[in-house]
Design a protein that fits this description.
Oligomer: single chain
CATH class of the largest domain: Alpha Beta
Largest sheet: 7 strands, parallel
Number of strands: 13
CATH architecture of the largest domain: 3-Layer(aba) Sandwich
Number of helices: 22
Shape: globular
Strand content: 5-15%
Number of domains: 2
């Protein structure tokens, strides 16, 4: 190893030495603690399910002091159920298949054992975490950096939509943890000189059922071929594939299945409803529900990118602060939209399924399934954006006459019938005219944006980037206000546009 590499590693090595020196006295206590913990595990599970604080501590799981401090620094008072089950097994060197409801602390369940192993054996390119979406990759990186802040852990996020050269420079600095989407990681393996995964000790697949799906088959095969067989592999998800061949592709060795929920389920504090409506009045009912539950923070799921933008434009035309998020946006704009919602500068995030998996936004109060998901497992992930880590939340699914079969599949998966969300039909229909006008305005806005994009195509990179107006805020209403004779069409939208410019 070169002297520069050893200098770079000194922060982790120093932390490792300090942990080794300072932790010797507590090892007996940890063994005793974990022993007593297992004796009354059932009682603890019950208290955890009821939401009360669990008696088992981070030390009881076998974690070293510096990581226990990091957990408490993040206000993680006690380990969650999946963490209690998975961390001791991971520290003992087992491959793990972890299945737990969304929002139950799965990231901590794989991040903490990896960080402890890194302290025991400091090296660069130590672990790779694969995720299906870019936003989830950034979130996992934040958690690793927060947990590893005291030991100087370096992380690198490798996702599509960002500059390849910049990412290659980050990889050349040899981070400890690489968090990546499969496609972009393969790009770097094939094109970035000097980059390889031959020394990797840990591979994690977060949202593993999605990564092992056909969508990523080619990329995952390429990644597995260039990784050492002598490694630990963790698969985590809220819904896991049952197809053995898919799991075999992950090259697990004698895996232990950690399943803290025996069937696909949602957390107990999540109130779930359905709303059976005529398809042509879907937008009217949406606005009514937003008014009824005003003051809450909403995530609205749509099936297509176009519907996401159109719904956001319609709500902004009604004076509601909504921001869209979908796969056709540039990565920088996707992150900007997400940050606006996370910082609570916007109360409504309208998204396709790219935001359905793994994202942890604590303040989400209500999830609305405006378009019902095609796959019933996606429902579990969508509604898991609320009622996270012991908090309460609501989820409402809009069911039209065309969605009955898809909805019945969801109820079958959940194993229960959901109650209906009550609406006064007269109150809903009173909004019909206003919503209809806002929808017409939104369609005109959307057509204008698409025409502007088309007209700027071929004008170079800057022109293409300037045309990327997915946020819709700076254009909504403002342009109409500037055009004579269009004040009526853009009144409320203009107000919304003005507000967005101040923010």
């Amino acid at each position: 190893m070169s002297s520069s590499e050893s200098d770079d590693m000194s922060d982790v090595e120093e932390a490792a030495r300090a942990a080794a020196n300072g932790d010797g006295d507590s090892s007996d206590e940890q063994e005793n603690g974990s022993g007593t913990g297992s004796d009354d595990g059932e009682a603890k599970d019950k208290t955890a399910e009821n939401g009360t604080e669990n008696k088992q501590t981070w030390e009881d799981l076998g974690l070293i002091d510096i990581l226990c401090q990091a957990c408490r620094g993040l206000k993680w008072k006690a380990p969650s159920k999946i963490q209690r089950e998975a961390i001791p097994l991971a520290l003992n060197g087992k491959d793990i298949i972890g299945l737990a409801e969304t929002g139950s602390g799965k990231t901590g369940a794989f991040a903490l054992p990896i960080l402890q192993a890194l302290l025991d054996n400091p090296q660069r390119y130590f672990a790779v975490v694969l995720t299906p979406t870019r936003e989830l990759a950034y979130q996992i990186s934040e958690q690793f950096e927060a947990l590893g802040a005291m030991i100087g852990v370096k992380c690198c996020v490798i996702v599509g939509g960002m500059d390849l050269v910049t990412q290659a420079i980050q990889l050349a600095r040899k981070p400890h943890i690489i968090i990546a989407t499969p496609g972009r990681l393969v790009d770097h393996l094939e094109n970035t000189k000097g980059f390889n995964l031959k020394a990797i000790k840990y591979l994690v697949m977060d949202e593993a059922d999605r990564i092992l799906n056909m969508d990523f088959e080619e990329e995952v095969n390429k990644i597995l071929k260039v990784m050492p067989r002598e490694r630990r592999t963790f698969l985590f998800s809220a819904t896991m594939t049952k197809k053995v061949k898919k799991l075999e592709r992950a090259s697990l060795r004698d895996p232990v299945k950690v399943e803290v929920s025996s069937k696909y389920q949602t957390v107990e504090k999540l109130l779930q409803y359905y709303l059976f409506i005529p398809a042509r009045f879907k937008n009217v009912y949406l606005v009514h529900v937003l008014n009824e539950l005003a003051g809450n923070s909403f995530m609205i799921f749509c099936s297509t990118c176009n519907n996401t933008v159109r719904t956001a434009l319609m709500l902004r035309a009604l004076g509601l602060a909504a921001v869209p998020l979908h796969g056709q946006m540039t990565q920088n704009k996707r992150l900007a939209a997400l940050n606006k919602f996370k910082s609570q500068a916007r109360q409504i995030l309208i998204s396709t399924d790219i935001a359905s998996r793994g994202l942890d936004i604590p303040h989400v109060d209500v999830v609305l399934n405006l378009d019902i998901p095609m796959h019933s497992k996606d429902y579990i992930h969508r509604v898991g954006r609320t009622a996270r880590a012991g908090r309460a939340g609501q989820a409402i699914t809009f069911v039209t006459q065309y969605d009955v079969e898809l909805y019945q599949r969801i109820e079958h998966l959940l194993g229960k019938k959901l109650p209906e969300f009550k609406c006064e039909q007269d109150e809903v229909m009173a909004l019909q005219e206003r919503v209809g006008e806002a929808l017409r305005t939104a369609r005109v806005e959307q057509r204008d944006i698409e025409e502007r994009k088309a007209s700027k195509t071929g004008k170079g990179k800057r022109g293409a980037d300037d045309s990327d107006e997915e946020d819709t805020e700076q254009f909504n209403g403002v342009r109409k206000r500037l055009k004579p004779g269009n004040a009526k069409g853009g009144g409320k939208g203009g107000k919304g546009g003005k507000k967005s410019r101040r923010n």
